């Protein structure tokens, strides 16, 4: 089971000229971030000291430093959770990023799936009352759905750890549904990634925000010095930024509208607009569409590995207008697309 769940977009994008599969902003990190990373090379001679980065994250979200856990990319947070918690009933809400389920299974936990039907809105009533660990994405990859923060907060209760994966929240202008600053809901863990919007997946930089006792339990599962000096510099720089993120979020909104307009030209397409830097789409006879597009040099994310989705679903990362046009043309021309 977990082999398929471990499929990632970079696995399918490697041999293609045009990458609409990996849901990271194009072009790599911005110049100001590159400069900070360059400067951090000077710190490689010492063991990493995370205090400044922890303080910066805490300041950004109005949290206490004890509530901050720095991680090697958001993905690591799920592995720490799987080892820090001993859930009797762990629930992963799908379709969603599959790493939480992979991590829980690898740690020996059974996982119950709650599979949301289209349009993939969260139904709090579908979460079993006995669940003592619940993982949900907001906005969700690959559906792009943004759940209301009050619906998520209502899942939290004493005796339950509720994990909200906000890896793509920075693409939502103003982040109105973020729970990163919320300290009241019991057992709430918010996971944030810096690799998507700032285009630094190679640096592995992210963090979790949790009540101090739970944050301590997560930190206890990390090896010493687990977040390296370059990642720490990236974390400090990115959480200190608002301007660049706001610009990228605005540009992403406009580019997503362009991608959707192009997709609407393709006969039979169902596109889920979402709020992130990607769009979930499906079409009749699309079972082999990602392979057909790959033959034309276009990498898209096949979605068969996401519980609740099928061979006919693909995830498309928002790119520039010319790429969107090329994609729509290829979709329309590819056998089975219409
Ligand atoms: C929803 C979601 N959460 C977390 C991650 C992991 O991000 P990171 O690169 O920070 O480990 C991903 C990566 O694809 C993701 O899609």
Which ligands accompany this protein?
pyridoxal-5'-phosphate
Largest sheet: 7 strands, mixed
What is the helix content? 25-40%
**Strand runs, count:** 13
Q: How confident is the prediction overall: mean pLDDT?
A: 96
Unreliable stretches covering 5 or more consecutive residues:
none
The ordered string of helix (H) and strand (E) elements is HHEHHEHEHEEHEEEHHHEEHEEEH
Global geometry: globular
What does the model show?
With 338 residues, the chain is α/β, with parallel strands linked by helices. Helix content is 34%, strand content 16%. It is built from twelve helices and 13 strands. The chain has helices at residues 2-5, 9-13, 31-40, 51-61, 74-84, 99-106, 149-153, 212-220, 229-239, 243-264, 289-295, 321-333; strands spanning 18-19, 68-71, 90-94, 111-115, 133-137, 161-165, 188-193, 206-209, 270-272, 278-282, 298-299, 301-302, 313-317. Strands 2-8-7-6-5-3-4 form a seven-stranded mixed sheet, with helices on both faces. Strands 9-10-13-12 form a four-stranded antiparallel sheet. A hairpin with a 5-residue loop joins β9 and β10 (278-282). α5 crosses α8. The longest helix is centred in the last third of the chain and has 22 residues, at 243-264. The radius of gyration is 20 Å and the shape is globular. The model has no long low-confidence stretch (mean pLDDT 96). Pyridoxal-5'-phosphate is lined by residues 73-75, 97, 137, 141, 165, 167, 193, 195, 201, 206.
